[in-house]
Amino acid sequence: LLDALIDQAALAIERVNLAEDVDRARLAAETERLRSALLTSISHDLRTPLASILGSATSLTSYGPMLDEESRRDLASTIQEEAERLNRFIANLLDMTRLESGAIRPRTSPVDLAELVGSALERAGKILAGHTVEVDLAADLPMLEVDSVLFEQVLFNLLDNAAKYAPAGSRIDVRAHQENGRVRIEVLDEGDGIPGADVERIFDKFYRVHAQDRQRAGTGLGLAICRGFVEAMGGTIVAGNRTDRRGAVFTLSIPAAAELARIDEEAAE
Ligand code: ADP
């Protein structure tokens, strides 16, 4: 009987091992597929702006003297815009790598949201031109306990998207109020919003809702970086659609600085 039991156990173990092997093989295949999809996507994102830069630069060097002032300026600004796009993409890739390797360790301190919104708006100035931005922060808003550099980047990415995915001239709202000892911040736009099935997936690396988004400068990394930064600071970020009108809403819940920390800081000043 013992022999039979041992045989049975050995058989069961073998079966488990076999199943694990299959799982492992499936995982390896899936990882390989993702890796190659990622490489294709990255190559595309690098090649598209580079092709524009090369094309415009070649036209300038070959035909520059024959072109009128305006055409030359157009070519030069294409080169500049596409180089900026490359720069952004590489900065995003670096942020992502630093996030994933755990190299990003937020240094949090009490920060005034009004100041952060101000500097993010200033940085996004060119991008937001043509949009109306309304900022409505509750009067009793506590300080946030965040890393100001990382948090400004989060706000910048959300404003950048609000401008990019909503029509020119539309309105963008930034609102904040206190809720259960945390600060709830919302960025609302008047674009097409986000299909219900995608509200979570848009936070995945390289995920973009529409194929035609490829035409709009973007990397599919912005929101993944936002979520990584926000979670590293003890906050949450979710996407949804507005209920009062068309448009997307991004909602952040961020720890408020302890009252004590604020008093400490004031005493230190
Ligand atoms: P990117 O903007 O570079 O594509 P993101 O990670 O910032 O990358 O966004 C991922 C995708 O989520 C976008 O491609 C777009 O499809 C969708 N998205 C982001 N923000 C908005 C928004 N405000 N309104 C509608 N769709 C959005």
TrEMBL record:
<protein>
    <recommendedName>
        <fullName>histidine kinase</fullName>
    </recommendedName>
</protein>
<feature type="domain" description="Histidine kinase">
    <location>
        <begin position="41"/>
        <end position="258"/>
    </location>
</feature>
